[in-house]
Amino acid sequence: MPAIAAATGISKENLYKWEKGTKPSDVGLYNKLNDYLDKMESSFNHVMEDGRLNGSKKSSPGPRSLLTGIFIAEDEEALVLTDELGVPGNIITLNDKPVLIARRNDSSIIGSVDGLIQVNGDSIDPRYTSGAWIAVKKLRFTKIINGGFYYYVIDKNLQGILGKVRPSAENNSITLFADNEHTEITRNMDDILAIFSIEAVISK
Predict the structure, then answer these.
(1) Angle between helices 12-19 and 27-42 (to 10 degrees)
(2) In the chain, fewer beta carbons within 10 Å around the N or the C end?
(3) Up-side HSE of residue 194: CA atoms within 13 Å toward CB?
(4) 5-31 burial by CB neighbour count: b if 16+ within 10 A, else e?
(5) Is the Cβ–Cβ distance between 105 and 194 less than 8 Å?
(6) What pLDDT score does 51 carry?
(7) What's the rounded Cα separation, in Å, for the pair 132 and 139?
(8) Coil, strand, or helix at residue 187?
(9) CA atoms of 192 and 155, how far apart (whole Å)
(10) Which of 201, 174, 204 is nearest to 113 (CA)?
(11) Could you give the CA distance from residue 149 to residue 125 in angstroms, rounded to a whole number?
(12) Where are the alpha helices (DSSP H) in the chain?
């Protein structure tokens, strides 16, 4: 707060009040603060340092990365990834752990999701064409899924499959299918690393 006050000329008292939810009496000062914060965010030089990356330290000038890394097999907090690490929808390995690369979701319309990934190649459902974007949310409890809903499933071969889900005739298995196609893929639950619900679709 003292640094922002010195840079903007806005008193610390005003800044503390606004932080606590007090309505600003001077809209001009409030706009000045917004302009300053926007400028700081766009010129932000961030340093990514994470113990899960073996102490590696990457510094990157310029705006924040748009990418996030979602751990597939573990319930760990998502990572901030540099744009050079890949494209959304790809799976990479960091410290021997598979990570799904996703685009950060900055849209309040889509709501709370883990990220956006792009459909690469052919999905078993024609509505999810290559190049479409899906907003995904990792399920914490993979045993609780709703039949007839769309999910993105990643198996132990790090293959992502997108389709409607129903219980399989085989014990402890699920089948992914599409309404208007005859393709079906069955996976044993023990061979599945992660299941993501599809919260939104953005077609090309």
Answers:
(1) 80
(2) C
(3) 26
(4) beebebeeebbeeeeeeeeeeeeebee
(5) no
(6) 46
(7) 21
(8) strand
(9) 4
(10) 201
(11) 12
(12) 2-8, 12-19, 27-42
Q: Could you read off the pLDDT of 110-135 as tens digits, one per residue?
A: 778 999 998 876 566 667 777 788 89
Reported as a single tens digit per residue, the pLDDT across 143-176 is 778 888 889 999 999 988 888 888 777 788 888 8
158: nearest Cα among 96, 112, 85, 111: 96
φ/ψ of 47, rounded to 5, equals -115, 125
Res. 196: pLDDT tops 80 = yes
Q: How far apart are the first and last CA of the chain?
A: 43
Q: Which two tokens stand for residue 21?
A: 């939810």
Contact by Cβ (8 Å): 187, 199: no
Q: What is the pLDDT of residues 6-63, one digit of tens each?
A: 778 888 888 888 777 777 777 788 778 877 777 765 544 433 444 444 444 444 444 5
Sequence letter at residue 45: N
Give the chain's length.
204
Nearest alpha-carbon partner for 104 in 47, 64, 50: 64
